[in-house]
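Standup notes
- DV: blocked on the single-chain target, sequence here:
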Amino acid sequence: MPRIFLAIALLAFFYPYLPLPWVVAYPLDVVLYVASRVSLLLALAALVSAEYRSRPGALR
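- DV (later): unblocked, structure below
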């Protein structure tokens, strides 16, 4: 799973420098935007889950 996030991050960093036609670049931009938002939500959910599980008396 972390390899997927690394691939998304590398693609998001380098794709503005690639000579892509707009037919490819626009959908890729939308996909990367959605993937970044999903990644942020997953990271936030993991952080909240870890914080909840670290409390004394929490169900494990």
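- Follow-up: The CA atoms of residues 17 and 24 lie 13 Å apart.
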